[in-house]
Write a structure and sequence with these properties.
By secondary structure, this protein is of the alpha/beta class. It has one domain. It contains 6 helices and 6 strands. A 4-stranded mixed β-sheet has the order 1-3-2-6. α5 links the parallel β2 and β3. α3 packs antiparallel against α4. It is globular and about 45 Å long.
């Protein structure tokens, strides 16, 4: 079944989770369409921003298809079909978790962090991880592995440290939810 997107781009970029869930439940938008829009926006705009530093788009597409099937069966979960990014230190099975430390560059956990498991159980579509300062201990988001995250509204400024990548992702419209700490 083909879906027609009826929400305008602003709604898809900066809409509330409630509004997006309403469109998904009403079948005005599919989770796969919402994800495709989010991925296209990240790919078009994130280069100079550098907020989404670990991308998990293939698994996200699988999760969005599963969300569409669940929505088609009438299932309702708090985040079913909503694209979500996470601060880099949260473990996602198979994705790098470095805390910005170069000596952890090759570490890939085998299981999800509790918050990630709960997000997935709520139907969230995990799209990737956002940048951080090394050890989460700086007023900006820079590390030797992934470089600097810039403020999407003024690339000469910082979005801040610790969860700066999350803040930049939200400000750039790369989804309605980004989990920081």
């Amino acid at each position: 079944m083909e879906f027609m997107m009826t929400a305008d781009a602003t709604d898809l970029n900066y809409g509330s989770i409630g509004a997006l869930l309403g469109a998904l439940h009403a079948r005005k938008l599919s989770a796969s369409e919402l994800l495709a829009h989010t991925i296209a926006r990240i790919e078009a705009l994130d280069g100079p921003i550098n907020a989404i530093i670990v991308r998990d788009f293939d698994r996200a597409k699988d999760a969005a298809r599963a969300a569409d099937a669940a929505l088609g069966r009438g299932e309702r979960l708090p985040l079913l079909g909503i694209p979500v990014s996470l601060k880099e230190p949260f473990n996602v099975a198979g994705l790098p978790t470095t805390w910005g430390f170069p000596h952890f560059r090759d570490f890939r956990p085998t299981e999800d962090a509790l918050v990630v498991s709960r997000l997935k159980a709520a139907g969230a579509v995990i799209i990737g991880k956002t940048n951080i300062p090394i050890g989460l201990r700086d007023f900006q988001s820079y590390n030797d592995i992934h470089g600097t995250t810039n403020n999407p509204w003024d690339l000469g400024r910082s979005p801040g440290g610790s969860s700066g990548g999350c803040g930049a992702a939200l400000a750039a419209g790369f989804g309605s939810l980004s989990i920081g700490s």
